[in-house]
Amino acid sequence: MSIRYIEETKQLILETKNTAYQMKIDELGYLQHLYYGPKLGQNDMSYPFRIYDHGFSGNPYDMRQNRAYSLDSMSQEYTSFGVGDFRVTSIRASCSDGSRCAEFRYEEHEILDGKYAIPGLPSVYDSGQIAQTLIVTLIDKPANIRIKLYYGVFEELDIITRAAEIINAGYEIVWLRKACSMCLELPFGEWDMIHFHGRHCMERQPERVPLFHGVHSISSGRGMSSHQHNPFVILCDREATEDSGVCYGVMLMYSGNHKTEIELDQFDCVRVVTGLSDDRFRWELASEASFFTPEVILSCADGLTELSYNYHRVIRHNVVRGEYKLSHRPVLINNWEATYFDFNEEKLLSIAEKAKELGIEMFVLDDGWFKNRNDDNAGLGDWIPDTRKLPNGLESLIAKINDMGLRFGLWIEPEMVNEDSDLYRAHPDWALTAPNRAPMMARNQLALDLSRREVHEYLFQTIAGLLEKYNITYIKWDFNRPLADVYSHSTPSPRQGEVAHRYYLSLYRLYERLTKAFPHVLFEGCAGGGGRFDAGMLHYSPQIWCSDNTDAISRLTIQYGTSFGYPASTVGAHVSASPNHQTGRKTPLRTRGIVAMSGTFGYELDLSLLSDEDCEEIKEQIKRFKEIEPIVHDGKLYRLSKLSDSAHYMAWQFVSPDQSRSVLNIVVTNPLANSAPVHVNLKGLLPDEIYSVNGEFEVLGSALMQGGYTFPRLTGDYPAMQLDIVKIG
Question: Does domain 3-318 have CATH number 2.130.10.10?
Answer without folding.
Answer: no
